[in-house]
Write a structure and sequence with these properties.
It is a single chain. This protein is mainly α. The protein has one domain (4-409). The protein is 73% helix and 0% strand. The protein has helices spanning 12-38, 45-48, 54-67, 71-93, 98-119, 126-133, 144-168, 174-186, 192-197, 204-209, 213-220, 223-234, 236-257, 263-286, 295-327, 336-340, 342-357, 370-394, 399-409. The protein is globular, with a radius of gyration of 22 Å.
């Protein structure tokens, strides 16, 4: 989602790495998102038993969760912070007012995000990025040590936030969930048990399966309220801002101190990232089974395992990719076009997921097993790679990136090469 073209040729290899890393992140974000878009998470055990090798499907899903879930959103957020540093450096070099530029850029992203959130998929991350991105203006003059201190505190705040809610019994996101459940009841999109207990509970699988566009859309404009509740519950405001600040720190190191050339540092990051990250991510996976660890202690461990495990493993993945790009530059280069069109590809993934699996589209909800859905996502991503390569041969930017740039600069910009 960044503009690499404004940079000098001296930094082109570093920017290519960022495009590659962004492309890899887009792939794994899609592999996570398609599980929600397809509704595979909402299959009952009885329903899953109809597929071939159901135990293998469960194992694969758990393995995927432990190894990948959350890690590439983390990397994507880091890249956002890195992109801010790159843009800031280039705006200052051109003697332009960076505050006005970045505010316009974030407001334009906010509009794109809100359209995605309310009209396509409630799992949107762009709206949150745009809102929190505006705060980066206040951190631009912080030195590296101060950025790291703020990031460290923010990563721990979700734990403190949860402890506060637990101690005071102020779970202030509950009314947001209750509102969504009530709206779902009016549309008859609740679980069968809800009708017996008279306590409405939104049934996401019914909403995915419905072919009534009016019902689907009425629920779509309500679901962002649940999204807000989840963001509050998980302390995601703190997490994402922490990652933005870590990205700013990394961006400075990349541009000023040639961080990507420091192989010893990258190797240590890989080693310690996996050593620390793997045990905590195994715990992160175990917490998916509420019968094994119950109650509020489970919630505490969930926040702790994210703060330590997901963070460590994401850094290990990013450093591994940096080392691989350096040692075998052509191996991952095909990810770069996808990374340059990350915004277009991210939005199109949501659209394709709705089109293929939801009842208002082709209605393939409940048809495929977990492994088949992952295979479908891989196939769709290959098509995105081909599309990105062909598009960038003729055009300067991805279509949504072009709209975003024009809105930011306030004038018409050439699209064709």
């Amino acid at each position: 989602m960044s503009d690499s073209r404004v940079l000098s040729s001296e930094t082109s290899s570093r920017i290519e790495f960022l495009d590659i890393l962004r492309g890899v992140a887009i792939l794994f974000i899609f592999l996570v998102n398609i599980q929600h878009l397809s509704g595979v998470h909402y299959y009952s055990e009885e329903f899953e038993s109809q597929f071939l090798f159901p135990d293998f499907q469960h194992f694969l899903e758990m393995l995927f969760f432990v190894l990948f879930t959350g890690k590439f959103y983390f990397i994507f957020s880091l890249l956002f912070g890195i992109g801010f540093v790159v843009q800031y450096q280039n705006i200052v070099k051109r003697n332009l007012p960076y505050k006005q530029f970045f505010i316009r850029r974030m407001l334009a992203l906010l509009v794109i995000g809100l359209i995605h959130l309310f009209f396509i998929w409630s799992g949107d991350i762009l709206t949150l990025y745009a809102v929190l991105g505006l705060t980066l203006i206040f951190f631009v003059d912080f030195d590296d040590r101060r950025l790291l201190k703020w990031a460290f505190v923010l990563l721990l705040l979700p734990i403190v936030h949860w402890l506060f809610m637990y101690a005071t019994r102020t779970y202030y996101y509950y009314p947001l969930f209750d509102f969504v459940h009530e709206q779902a009841a009016e549309l008859d999109l609740v679980t069968p048990a809800s009708k017996v207990t008279d306590q409405p509970r939104f049934d996401a699988s019914q909403r995915i399966a419905t072919d009534d566009f009016s019902t689907w859309f009425q629920m779509q404009v309500v679901l962002p309220v649940m999204r807000l509740g989840l963001i509050i519950m998980e302390g995601r405001l703190f997490k994402v801002l922490a990652l933005f600040l870590l990205g700013m720190w990394a961006g400075r190191k990349i541009l000023r101190e040639h961080l990507l050339d420091d192989q010893e540092f990258l190797k240590k990051l890989v080693f310690w990232g996996f050593i620390i990250g793997i045990p905590f991510n195994i715990l992160f996976g175990i917490l998916k089974f509420p019968d094994l660890i119950t109650g509020n202690f489970r919630n505490f461990l969930n926040h702790l395992s994210f703060a330590i495990g997901v963070t460590s493993m994401a850094f290990a993945y990013a450093a591994s990719i940096a080392l691989l790009v350096r040692s075998r530059p052509n191996l991952l280069r095909w990810f770069a076009p996808v990374g340059r069109m990350a915004l277009t590809n991210y939005l199109s993934q949501s659209f394709l997921g709705i089109l293929i699996f939801h009842g208002i589209g082709f209605g393939y909800f409940g048809v495929f097993s977990f492994s088949e859905i992952i295979a479908i996502a891989m196939l769709l991503f290959v098509l995105q790679v081909v599309f990105s390569v062909l598009w960038l041969r003729r055009f300067r930017y991805g279509p949504v990136e072009w709209v975003w740039r024009q809105t930011t600069y306030g004038r018409r910009l050439p699209l064709r090469r």
